[in-house]
Amino acid sequence: MKIAIAILALVLVAGVSFAAAEKAPKATEPFGAVIETTGVFVGKIVGATEEALTGERKVTVKNDTGETRIFPFNETVELVDKGFHALTFNQLKPGEDVTVKIKKALSK
User: Fold this and answer.
1) What is the CA radius of gyration of the chain?
2) Residues 6 or more apart from 86 whose CB is under 8 A from it?
3) Count of domains for the chain
C-alpha cells in the first residue's frame, strides 16, 4: 500500500512539474544575443524576421568575433551594404556583409 501511494505521489509531482514547464515562456531571441539600442555594428546578416500580427521587423547580425546582435528594423536603424547603399527589408539576405547604424537612441 505504501509503495502504491509513493508511486501515485511521484506521478502527481511529475505531472505538475511538466505542466509548469509547458507554461514557461519560450525564448524569442537567439541565445546570447544582445538587443542593440545605440551605435554602429558591422557583421553578416544571420536572419531577418517579421511578426505577422504586429508587423514588427528585426534583423540579426553576427560579427567576425561571434557576437550576435538583434536590431529593430525601423526608422531609427539603417543597414548599408559594402557599397554604402541603404538596404530595404526585402533586400536583406543571410550571409551579406552589412553595417548597422542606429540614427538615434530608441525609446522604450
Assistant:
1) 22
2) 78, 79, 80
3) 1
Q: What backbone torsions phi and psi does residue 75 show, to the nearest 5 degrees?
A: -65, -15
The 3-state secondary structure of 14-77 reads HHHHHHHHHHCCCCCCCCCCEECCCCEEEEEEEEEEECCCCCCEEEEEECCCCCEEEEECCCCE
| Position 22 in a domain | no
Look up the CATH number of the domain holding residue 52: 2.40.50
Place of cell 551594404: 81
Question: Checking DSSP bridges between strand 34-35 and strand 40-50, what pairing results, if any?
Answer: unpaired
The whole domain housing 79 covers 34-102
Residue 40 lies in a domain: yes
The pLDDT tens digits for 17-74 are 444 444 444 445 555 555 555 678 899 999 999 888 888 999 999 999 999 999 888 8
pLDDT, position 38:
64
